[in-house]
């Protein structure tokens, strides 16, 4: 957020950031999605309240792989209390999958174990990034005891 998008590249490993959002500190673990990194994901699940799953809305060829990884991930015991926000990225690109196509491709309606929400976004323009974080914060406020 508020970063020069021209200098951002895909995450190769992981990045930890703390974001202040409307008076709440959000600790964000950006974990790369390459197949070689997926076996390490489980090392970052402790005390996870929300999972933000970013889908490339222009990549129809990998939507099934994306679905399989997501559904496998949601079976992890340490993620049982986490809610899921699916960010459909690159929805500002002509010919991309729309929300309905992503919902169907990821089989989100089959997810009964986690509260979920899908939201279009653009990492380039920032569209809906704040709104997505606001959804996560509101969801946490409804579920968790905040002192």
Automatic annotation (TrEMBL):
The entry's GTP-binding residues are: 33, 89-92
| Keyword Heme assigned | no
The alphabetized UniProt keywords are:
GTP-binding, Hydrolase, Magnesium, Metal-binding, Nucleotide-binding
Residues involved in Mg(2+) binding: 11
What would you give as a GO molecular function for this chain, any one? GTP binding
Record keyword Lipid metabolism present: no
Stated family: Belongs to the small GTPase superfamily. Arf family.
The record's section on PANTHER family has:
ADP-RIBOSYLATION FACTOR-LIKE PROTEIN 2-RELATED
Q: What is this protein called?
A: p-loop containing nucleoside triphosphate hydrolase
